[in-house]
Amino acid sequence: MRWAGANVIELENVAYSYGGGELLSDISVKLAPGSFHFLTGPSGAGKTTLLKLCYGALLPSAGYVRLFQTDVRSLERDDVAQLRRKIGVVHQDVQFLDHLSVTDNVALPLTVSGRHAEAAGPDLAELMNWVGLTNRADARPPQLSGGERQRVALARAVIMSPDIVLADEPTGNIDWEMSQRLLTLLVELNRMGKTVLIATHDLGLIRAAKAQVQARVLRISNRRVQLAGADL
Amino acid sequence: MRSALKSLRTLVAGDPYAGRVVPPSGFTAQLTLFASGAMAFLAVFALALSLASGRLAERWGNELAGTATIRIVAPQDQRAQQTAAALQVLETTPGIARARALSDAEQQALLAPWFGSDLPLDSLPVPRLIEIVSAGQGFDATGLRLRLAAEVPGAVLDDHGRWRAPLVAAAQRLRLLGWLAATLIVAAVAAMVTLAANAALAANAQVVAVLRLVGATDRYIAQAFVRRFTWRALVGSTAGVVLGLIAVWLLPSGGDAPSFLTGIGFQGIGWLVPLLLPLVCAVVALAATAFAASRALRSLS
Fold it and tell me: Which of these, A22, A208, B248, B257, has the minimum number of CB atoms within 10 Å of its CB?
């Protein structure tokens, strides 16, 4: 489903508190369909928290988070899970089911949504090829290198053909060459019409991306989000 | 019950891939199998005890309710005359199928366990016994006592009610205790499965986090655990029931003179009752795991 015109993610005056302290305050962000955004800021600024708010893993203390025009607070937990199938997420410390093969882990979103036939279909093989992991299809996640794990996570994140891809420090644990390869994949996804939001403090990655795609950079500073200047 | 059966059907015929998302082995797997097997084994004995007690209560109730005894306690020279008078009274009493005086040999046989077989019955003041077998709804014991008091002064009617009632009550209580024991065993299975499911969910917190990340609903995650524990309970309890039935079958039989201890076991359709145990254990495991998963997933949010 395309969301032409309507924002796929909307945060309006969002605040988030934890342990008595306010981590984020008065955040307003709108992500249009097909846009490419970076979220940057120092470690501990709240990038991961903001990302979690963007896929309904956390609920705001104040304000509104709307995913595909729906207020997440009005949803039951299982409704949020259904909505999450339209959002692919890649974490820095990616987690897999270690007892399943790489292919089964990539196909996991299909499995949990009852689309088993597709889990064994040609799309999966094509996806494995796209991320360059055809030869690692039967391996177990603990046998993978950091870069391979990130690519498996990306494949898993996009297998449901989500409208949005969120990535939290996707290049944090991998070398420059591998991070460029991963960025290329994310840029390709954006060219396919996916909305991409990457949380990172890697300025090199942001500059490399801006050379390939029109990306906006949001910076978290003092619990608030502001649009970064043209120097980024 | 209907929803539990529906869940069980969904579980059996449902998504075969769902079970794969939970790591296959672990300590809780063996624990659940062993505990449900042991519990089912014990439950078979509790049921055997209960059913045997029920049969005993019924047999004692039926046998003793249909018979009564008259003792003729009279001087030696009047005993035969009063016995004949008592039999005449019994002949005209409604509700009595037959009545007969026990012979000397029969009375001697009754006393033999205590006094030996060479007891000189004629020289002892042993009362003459009349055995009464009642018919249909039985006889009016109060009315018969009054008639005997008037016509046969040495006759004492004993309808066995004095000692029959506590025996039947005891057997019925034992039957109740058997069912209570079986129920407690099933409750223990529920508690054990709940603990094991909680432990499994806590140990698989990372699996739950991954599943949620890729869009699995809590219902889906819960079902993966429910399916696993239900199957384990079903397999374990089936093995326990089979072993229990073999053990009961191997219990020594009392032959022609069954006593309570040698009568413990199943008879006829009673052999089918323990076969329900695996199904009960599976339904209990399903409900217990669903409850545990629902609570655990809420706390893991």
Answer: B257
Can you give the residue ranges of every domain in chain A? 1-86+162-232, 94-161
- Nearest-Cα distance to chain B for A106, in Å, is 10
Q: Note the ipTM here.
A: 0.85
Mean pLDDT by 10 residues, chain B (301 residues): 59 66 78 92 93 83 80 87 93 91 87 78 82 85 90 88 78 88 92 90 89 91 90 95 94 65 80 93 94 88 66
Closest-CA residue of chain B to A153: B214
Q: Does A156 contact B220 at a Cβ distance shorter than 8 Å?
A: no
How far is the CA of A48 from the CAs of A30, A166, B14, in angstroms? 17, 10, 37
Taking an 8 Å cut-off on Cβ atoms, the answer to whether B212 and A81 are in contact is yes
- Chain centre distance of CA B21: 43
Name the DSSP letter for residue B1: -
B193 neighbors B32 (Cβ within 8 angstroms): yes
Say if residues A153 and A90 touch (Cβ distance below 8 Å). yes
d(CA B300, CA A178) in angstroms, rounded, equals 34
Pick among 3.40.830.10, 3.40.50.300, 3.30.420.40, 3.40.50.970: CATH of A1-86+162-232: 3.40.50.300
